[in-house]
């Protein structure tokens, strides 16, 4: 609905089925009411998270539902025919390991288990936050963008928020969530080919890179190479299936054929490095 005088407030039900439009007497009144409602919603967020986690049984050690760390309504940018763009409301929830997107707030345990989209925090990066126009301007949208490494390449999303507080809250939740996921998951490994030999490349949050012979025996194969992160001189990928790593060793540049898109491994590597640098106080 057009709002040329900035007098309207829209209130949406949690299930996304109902909308109420309120018209205030003038712009300042609308702004005052928006601030009051938004402030109370923000204040209720910790109670909401506690209620949802209790309902899902996420606080129980035997629960199969992940523990929610952050949740809220956002507007996601979608592409329309003819190159046009618009924003649609979505609910984003962050768990200890994943980003979940829903059309509306789920009302059952089954609904919580079937999000529209799931992205691992470890393979996701926050790449932009601030004004949609690139520089602050009155009335400009506040947005943040994410990029996730998938087997099909990089998947990008743009989300709009209502206030600077929302923007900083989501930025902090995403960055700290990715770092916490790195410390929680600790290790990611993938079977691949190196110099026509089947190997397993393992990235460990603390220990760095390990390349072992691929074995059927679950105990694992012999270690071929082991390097800490600080030995890494160069990393790159071809965007298709190859990952290139150079540690300055006598073997030179190593080319790993991952048999699938390399972006998930690349993004996990970046998350591990970012988490380690932040822990060391070299990133803030």
Automatic annotation (TrEMBL):
Main localization of the protein described in the UniProt heading: cytoplasm
Pfam family of the protein (one): PH
SMART domains, per database record: PH (SM00233)
GO terms for MF: structural molecule activity
Natural source organism: Champsocephalus esox (pike icefish)
Protein name: PH domain-containing protein
Location(s) in or outside the cell: Cytoplasm; Membrane
Keyword hit for Signal: no
Membrane topology (UniProt): Peripheral membrane protein
Keyword entries, A-Z: Cytoplasm, Membrane, Repeat
């Amino acid at each position: 609905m057009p709002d040329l005088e900035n007098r309207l407030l829209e209130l949406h039900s949690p299930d996304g089925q109902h909308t109420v439009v309120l018209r205030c007497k003038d712009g300042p009144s609308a702004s005052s009411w928006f601030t009051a409602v938004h402030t109370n919603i923000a204040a209720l967020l910790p109670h909401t998270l506690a209620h949802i986690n209790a309902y899902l049984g996420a606080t129980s050690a035997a629960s199969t539902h992940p523990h929610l760390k952050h949740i809220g309504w956002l507007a996601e940018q979608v592409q329309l025919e003819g190159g046009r763009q618009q924003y649609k409301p979505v609910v984003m929830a962050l768990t200890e390991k994943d980003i979940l997107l829903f059309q509306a707030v789920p009302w059952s345990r089954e609904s919580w288990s079937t999000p529209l989209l799931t992205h691992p925090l470890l393979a996701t990066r926050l790449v932009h936050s601030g004004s949609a126009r690139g520089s602050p301007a009155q009335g400009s949208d506040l947005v943040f963008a994410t990029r996730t490494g998938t087997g099909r390449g990089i998947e990008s999303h743009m989300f709009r928020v209502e206030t600077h507080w929302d923007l900083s809250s989501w930025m902090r939740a995403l960055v700290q969530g990715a770092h916490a996921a790195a410390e929680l998951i600790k290790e990611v490994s993938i079977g691949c080919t190196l110099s026509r030999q089947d190997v397993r490349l393992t990235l460990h949050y603390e220990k760095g890179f390990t390349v072992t012979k691929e074995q059927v025996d679950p105990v694992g194969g012999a270690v071929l190479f082991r390097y800490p992160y600080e030995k890494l001189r160069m990393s790159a990928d071809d965007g298709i299936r190859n990952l290139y790593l150079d540690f300055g060793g006598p073997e030179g540049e190593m080319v790993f054929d991952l048999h699938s898109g390399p972006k998930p491994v690349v993004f996990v590597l970046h998350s591990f490095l970012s988490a380690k640098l932040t822990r060391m106080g070299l990133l803030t």
